[in-house]
Amino acid sequence: MAFTKEEVLVRLRKLIDAGTPILGAGAGTGISAKFEEVGGVDLIIIYNSGRFRMAGRGSLAGLMPYGDANAIVMDMAGEVLTIVEDTPVLAGVCGTDPFRQMEVFLKQVIDIGFAGVQNFPTVGLFDGLIRKNLEETNMGYGLEVDMIRIASEMGMFTTPYAFNPREAALMAEAGADIVVAHMGLTTSGSIGAETSLTLEQSAENVQAICSAAREVKSDVIVLCHGGPIAMPEDAEYVLRNTDGVNGFYGASSMERLPVETAMVEHIRKYKQIEF
Predict the structure, then answer these.
(1) Dihedral angle sign, alpha carbons of residues 146, 151, 152, 157
(2) pTM metric for this prediction
């Protein structure tokens, strides 16, 4: 079922009032979405990297020229929206896509049954010279801010990634309902990143992003995500060492890492059968 922005916010505000962490989860397959819902997640987000991730490829595949990101998420909708029963599902929209009229495309996102959007793929994962060149050639983060603003004006629930305080402030000004403080690619597992911030650094950065967003929009919800925040105890550390952060959003940590561990251990038990 589709949810309005107001319905989603009522659910999330109740969790905040109860002191319960908000959990968002990325899903690359229908079975991931199905059992994330059974486990109790509050939001499900689908985007192209989820499909690549569950095909055994790193999440950065979603930022490479391996497919049409916005077409992929619409194709994934048929698999996920039909299996989820009572959890808002959001679409990862590539706001820098030069071949989409964004108002028209977002209307299609609404019509197919998504409750809202997130800015993914995102140029926020690029830095250095390539990021500078993207910004110089009209393929920068500002287009993602524009997409979130349009979606918000259309009444969609919006949960953008922000990678620093400046971006958090821009997204809050654009009307974001949730700002997700992104700490980079998730570490751990067979295809996780190895270069990352420490948990201590992540807590500091998440706090800075949270504070910047709240200066612009006092009631914006803030979640942490990525980098070394890969396990429940990691999320607990960040939430205990920040002020005003409302929960955690996981993608690799919610579907890839549990699958890697469970399948390996399960199969090894079969190989240990004695007869």
Answers:
(1) negative
(2) 0.92
- 177-192: b or e for each residue (b if 16 or more CB lie within 10 Å)? bbbbbbbbbbbbbebb
Please report, in tens digits, the pLDDT of each residue of the chain (275 residues total): 579 999 999 999 999 999 999 999 999 999 999 999 999 999 999 999 999 999 889 889 999 999 999 999 999 999 999 999 999 999 999 999 999 999 999 999 999 999 999 999 999 999 999 999 999 999 999 999 999 999 999 999 999 999 999 999 999 999 999 999 999 977 654 444 555 789 999 999 999 999 999 999 999 999 999 999 989 999 999 999 999 999 999 988 888 888 888 899 999 999 999 99
Which amino acid type is present at position 230? Answer: A
Q: 5-271 falls under which CATH superfamily? A: Aldolase class I (3.20.20.70)
